[in-house]
Amino acid sequence: MAGPGGARTPQRLLLLLLGLIHVASSIFVVKNGTESACIMANFSAVFFMNYTTKSGPGNTTFSLPQNAAVLDSSSCGKENASNPVLEIGFGKGHILSMNFTRTTQSYQVQLLSFSYNLSDATFFPNASKASKDLSVKSKTDIQADIDKKYRCMSGNQITMSNVIITLSDVTIQAYLSNNNFSKEETRCSQDTPSPTPVPTTHPTTTTMPVPTPTRTPTPEIPSVFKYNVSDANGTCLLASMGLQLNITYVKKDNSSVTTVMNINPNKTAAGGSCSPQVAILELHTENSTLTFSFGLNATTSKFFLREISFRTFFPDAKEPTFGAVNGSLKELQATVGNSYKCNAEENVQVTDAFSVNIFRVRVQAFKVEGDKFGSVEECLLDENNMLIPIAVGGALAGLVLIVLIAYLIGRKRSHAGYQTI
Questions:
Q1: Which of these, 70, 82, 98, 84, lies nearest to 38 by C-alpha position?
Q2: Residues 6+ apart with CB under 8 A from 403
Q3: pTM tops 0.85
């Protein structure tokens, strides 16, 4: 059985030296009474949660902290009596649990559960009520063959009532036989390209036309959602916007396709991080990660969107893993303490193959007071849109004035034509 220090073992150092885990992930080990490991898990997790604040409905996003540790309540289980369980604790009473079961050929995380405490202001700022026994749970598709580790690099999103947990870069193995991860692995379905049917060919002398680029139908305008990124020092990023992605990739038959997809807030887990010079918003869906990085120009006291990165997976693509990044952007700029606002649709070209349409955006980075947007700085597109009705109104007013002057001049001349008798 592992104690609070179970995650800090010599095996962790060995795995780090071998390059088997990433610093952003954490490794957790459960041992039995003879100090033999029965469960090893290495993963990162992002939590997105809706809860009630003192000022109304709110949400929070946070990552599994580096100081999270295996609890004494973890167990290797007893044959025919109980199953292995991994319990990870952090903060003021938060517990992430994985309950394992097995058959003769495979094992699985049968149940994932999360217990949390709303009175912990570090993770739930401004919560309206405190409780220490709130919990959610869900079945999972985490499954592997006996004596093989489960491996999944893609994000695996698990929705449980008001909680969305996104696991990524996952390596898990239960019922260990040699105190370490097996060399053989079972990969998750998200990492494995779907097989493409081989087309049936028939002898013919007709020359086949060259495939032309196709474009998927454009979806409706995306839903606007408010995102909040904060840490122990408070909120460093507020963003309200609707997001639409334009992606061009080459399929296995060498044809080019452009797909347009909306970011659905109800199926998206939001996370991020804060630092004095960079505020990061991460949006995780089942198969993709979209990241916005905001920078700070200390000379001009302005914040701006400096980088967008995107990663997803297309089973029908020639290169299934699609990635795009641009770290030299200068978009969505405003003075620190104010918020940038644009009702007009904005298009940010990230690469030749990827761009983001942003709808009804309002964003503020670094200096956010009371989790509320500051004074507005309008975008140039909105200012130009306001100039059009002003110009039209001015032109109409000028036309009316000209007609009125012409009428008065004409009236005066007509009176001058009469003679007094």
A1: 84
A2: none
A3: no
C-alpha span between 5 and 415 (Å, rounded): 105
Strand partners, 92: none
Q: Tell me the average pLDDT of the chain.
A: 81
Per-residue tokens: 259 = 């797909």
Name the region of 332 (left: φ>0; alpha: ψ -120 to 50; beta: rest). left
Which region holds residue 56: left if phi is over 0, alpha if psi is between -120 and 50, else beta? left
What whole-number distance in Å separates Cα of residue 48 and Cα of residue 53? Answer: 15
Which residue is associated with the tokens 């347009």? 260
Chain centre distance of CA 5: 31
Dihedral angle computed from the Cα positions of residues 329, 331, 337 and 338, in that order, rounded to the nearest 10 degrees: 180
Q: How far apart are CA 124 and CA 59, in angstroms?
A: 8
pLDDT tens for 171-201 read 999 999 888 999 999 998 777 554 444 444 4
Q: Which residues contact 245 (CB under 8 A, 6 or more apart)?
A: 260, 261, 262, 263, 290, 310, 354, 355, 356, 357
Instruction: Note whether 308 and 329 are within 8 A (CB).
Output: yes
Write the DSSP string, 143-193. EEETTSEEEE-S-EEEEETTEEEEEEEEEEEES-SSSS--SSEEE-TTTSP
